[in-house]
């Protein structure tokens, strides 16, 4: 898939009406991490987040959100030479869980958080975020299947195409 197309899909998925956290960005990070070079993948992922955040607005825990997305790129590298559905699904689930844990910890730890800075407050933060986690996981699984599936479909239709470079 073309870099510009990935950028457009990622930004569009954050801007159109959608259930909270059910976007293509996590899947885009995994797919690009698996099929494109590390530098290019990080740039695409951060660009998607940055462009859409200019419109959606900035927040105090962006460092955690962006960091978790870069971690998804790194996890995507784990499946860079793989076409295993099980391995790709495992990386996708791991990425979603880490995003949930990292970003909700950051929300809890942020100054002025709505959650008490206690273990109970941290648990409240995680419990209240479960609907967002469900949506994030569903979006990541759907879009990851879409990106990897479309890539495999294109390879099957046009055997002369190379697998996207992993360098």
TrEMBL record:
Superkingdom in the source lineage: Bacteria
Keywords: Membrane, Transmembrane, Transmembrane helix
Species assigned in the record: Candidatus Gottesmanbacteria bacterium RIFOXYB1_FULL_47_11
Keyword Membrane in annotation: yes
Protein's name according to its UniProt entry: Rod shape-determining protein MreD
Protein's UniProt keywords contain Membrane: yes
Transmembrane segments: 43-76, 88-108
